[in-house]
Amino acid sequence: MVRSLAQLAALALLATIVRRAEASGVALMPMPANVAMGSGRLVIDASFSAHIEGYTDRRLQAAVARLETRVERRTGIPLQHGGPAVLIVECRGGGPEYPSLSEDESYRLEVTESAAHLTAPAVTGALRGIETFVQSIAVDGQSFYAPVMRVEDTPRFAWRGFMLDVARHWMPLPVIERNLDAMAAVKLNVFHWHLSDDQGFRIESKVFPKLQRVGSDGNFYSQEQVREVIAYARDRGIRVVPEFDIPGHTTSWFLGYPELASAPGPYQIERNWGIFVPVMDPTREEVYKFLDAFIGEMAGLFPDLFFHIGGDEVLDTQWKNNPAIQAFARKNRLGSSAALHAYFNRRVQALLAKHGKQMIGWDEVLAPELARDVVIQSWRGQKSLAEAARGGHRGILSFGYYLDHMQPASMHYLVDPLSGDATALNTQEVALVLGGEACMWTEYVNAENVDSRIWPRLAAIAERLWSPREVTDVRSMYARMDVVSKALEWTGVQDRPGIDMLERRSGAGDGPLRVLVNAVEALGIDQRQKARHYNSFVPLNRLADAASPESEFVRHLEQIVADAPMDSAVRGELQLVFSLWSQNAGELQDVLNSRFFLVEAAPVSKDLSRIGDIGLRALQYLESGAEVPRDWLAEQRQELDRAMLPGAEVSLGAVRPVRALLDILMPSGRSGNPPGSH
Question: Per the structure, how many domains does the chain have?
Fold first, then answer.
């Protein structure tokens, strides 16, 4: 019985999603700069083919071939080829061989009932337009089709990035490549690859082989694999920017080369999370000779102009405790650890310039004498971004885009690189703000669940960085994101494997455990690091690791409560869900108490059942029209407040729609926050 109820609830929710997606029109994300919808459709069937006119090259030909393969996968219809073009792709020129910061990404797409015509000044613009065309493909009772429309589009910011940390938890090559495909689908254009940290050095160096030999636990990318990733990204219009964090976060360097450190060691790979004392010695010429050779090797491997040196969270304990370093600082009038750090950064910047690279660093590298061509990546707020711009530095915002904090898409969506302190910048300073980058740090993420921590929230950030500034409607964003999220599965994104793996490992079947997972939301890094001690050996196989950062199920229930008239159909849908919640503790009791990795979830399941009971009682009051006792309302609100407190490193998102239902029962009527604003 439980299994059939779960299926019915899922079908009811799916129907709601489809209704709302259809009401929003074409689900494009990022929203183009200009879209004019027409009437009619371009039917997508076995006769579909895409032809190139004008300029062509290998990259464009590969993109068109991928497009046809994706259409086949999306529709399930084998294409016959050989007929007249359904989509004509026309480029006026090739653009740079490797994607660049200044290239033209604009395009124009016109879809009529007979054909679609995509034009772009350069190949990268055509790649962006192809993604818009693929997103526009829909299905109804008649056919697969693309709606008649005219799109004129260009990005707001030139730098639209995603940073993935592969040092703390290793990410194999398939994880990288499928996320590059998903990045391309939402028009992101920079893959920032965080390749070294205290927990691992993740790339092959042929000049200094002990870096990966003893500093990686055997998990590193060969140089051939790096070239493969760069080529894979280039074909999709994505630049690859490497990061090697120095002078701090460098423990993994010192296993093989302890002479680089500011203290003698010994050193070992750091298994814990946090900020650690080991740091490079900024006073010894041998360190700069090493870095010169290493940067030279990596500069030959990575074609991008930009090279990230990290530079964040540098502890000065070893510097202060080293007499030779302190003597050097006095001799060179470096009166503080900050001055010593700035000296190190200037030396490294000169080495990068020697090898034809421009330096990027986290905002701790910002100092008065830093070369003006150094790009500042702000993780601490728009204040440092604005300070960098006033000092003549280009900047990138990451503050507000930290995906490991597990905040809702709505929060990320409303963070703008030119908001906050940046609003006071003049025209010349605004031009120095290049865009932004979302960050996925991986202390509490592994290869199994990383996609679910990135997507679909990254699509909302991609829209913020591509679309016009005035595109800020949260409800429209969510409606389109739901559709795009499902489309991203065609790129290979695995955004729900945590639930599947939890069910398989527990042997709980596909009913009540899935109900529980869909009712909770994962906590972010701040809460998890306080909850228990973690290190790189702790398995990520619990409820908190299967739960989404933001429950799509709960969000749609909130929207139903907020929007729909409380007629019998809506009450029946809510009653079905609340009944599932009410039964959860009883259905899961044996499973939760007999699986060691699920025992902690038993109280959460009991709270979900209590929430379901409250929801069912609230529906009874709504249906009967009886006066609701104020004491009862107050008691239930207290119970919901208690249930909302984190447990098992998750929060019960299920509280929100039930709380909204209680708001309706209040004499003042409906109140509360819009869906997704938690």
Answer: 3
